[in-house]
């Protein structure tokens, strides 16, 4: 039995107790088709925020280091997450991601690969575009903005799905993947609510 629905409801209650939640653009997300959900990442709260307040289950790619402890690995797997080795070309994680997307599931990715504080800059990983291109699905940008102080507001902004159809048939170079991913991150930066 999946723990996801139970964990999601518990996290929602927890988040509502700690913070005020402000969501816009939720209706923009595809209701049934697969897509890549791409978010910024400033805090450890961000995965909880994104997972709790999207109507569909999000399957997150998580760094393999989080799976080293048996109990944690068991919990993450039960919540639908799967590991990726960020130091190599992890073909197992790649195939898992593509399979999920083709099965009309939602793949959650924090494109910067790690937490990036407000005002900092970090190059986004090209994987966001690569997964979407290979699976033939759109990318939905989501911007999370908050100080995560007690009773502060957590702003969640969903953007219009970004279709990559215009790139179909082109050679998937690293430069092209990086260009597309940077375009997505620019959209996310534009949507962020200034505190």
TrEMBL record:
It catalyses: a 1-acyl-sn-glycero-3-phosphate + an acyl-CoA = a 1,2-diacyl-sn-glycero-3-phosphate + CoA. SUPFAM superfamilies: Glycerol-3-phosphate (1)-acyltransferase (SSF69593). Its EC number is 2.3.1.51. Keywords: Acyltransferase, Lipid biosynthesis, Lipid metabolism, Phospholipid biosynthesis, Phospholipid metabolism, Transferase. It holds the Pfam family Acyltransferase. The HXXXXD motif is essential for acyltransferase activity and may constitute the binding site for the phosphate moiety of the glycerol-3-phosphate. This is 1-acyl-sn-glycerol-3-phosphate acyltransferase.
